[in-house]
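Reopening: structure tokens for the nicotinamide-adenine-dinucleotide complex, inputs below.
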Amino acid sequence: MPALSAVITGSTSGIGLGIAEAFAKENWNVMLNGFGDADEVEAERKRLEEIAGGDVRYNGADMTKPAEIRMLMKEAEDAFGQIDVLVNNAGIQHVASIEEFPEGKLDAIIAINLVSAFHTTKAVMAAMKSRGFGRIINVASAHGLVASPFKSAYVAAKHGIVGFTKTIALEGAEHGVTCNAICPGYVKTPLVENQIADTAKARGISEEDVVKKVMLEAQPTKEFVTVKQIGALAVFLCSENAAQITGAAHQIDGGWVAK
Ligand code: NAD
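Re-run output (same inputs, fresh job):
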């Protein structure tokens, strides 16, 4: 596969970082994004750059701020010459019943998990179409296909991004631009670790039971998905062999959505 240039939102941690590592192993240029301790982010950037042999950069744009998103995309385009691959991955979660759901959290989840993908995609679409090649991957979730209680905003945002994936695919179809959603089940990242206590409270059960009876119970394999497995799927979706795969939602969830 030729060396490509990629932007991955929310790639300072978890799944985004796993995808960045998979891309670095392909020797691609990678623009990292996300929050985190400046020294730790710089250490990860350097580590990936050593793996990549390509150019690995970091821009800390806040995905709730369209002007910062536009600057992130411009910085990547200026640095790499072009953006071939866009991974819309940044996301947050909040677990609470609808009647107790804080409005600020609702707005933030919709902005980061859904609306930011519109702004990043808008920034790359014309250039990808004119070059006749582009790969857009939206990291959705099993919650883009089915619901769970107490995750109303997240389920709404993730169903939204699966729909957005289909429209991008249709608009890019005759121009070599594919768009797919990856729909992971539970992956043990900070996003999941942080919701164990709130889920225990919302359901009135212990934290141990949240892992066993809520998370792993959802997945027939009874195992967490790994970031390495998601990274490998993302690399495949960017390949020439995946040119006819577009507008699809790819479950990587240990069988969760098959039930
Ligand atoms: P994570 O918390 O480890 O990583 C989230 C990333 O998004 C971090 O880099 C964080 O800094 C970044 N981020 C958060 N708010 C941001 C903002 N305003 N602007 C820019 N960056 C921001 O979580 P993760 O589990 O790796 O989640 C990544 C994606 O995968 C999310 O979209 C999530 O919904 C999705 N997902 C996760 C799981 C899971 O089980 N972990 C399952 C399905 C889908």
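The beta strands are 5-8, 29-33, 56-59, 85-88, 134-139, 177-184, 249-252. The pocket of nicotinamide-adenine-dinucleotide is lined by residues 10-16, 33-36, 62-64, 89-92, 112-113, 139, 141, 184, 186-187, 189-192 (CB under 6 Å). Marking as resolved unless the reporter disagrees.
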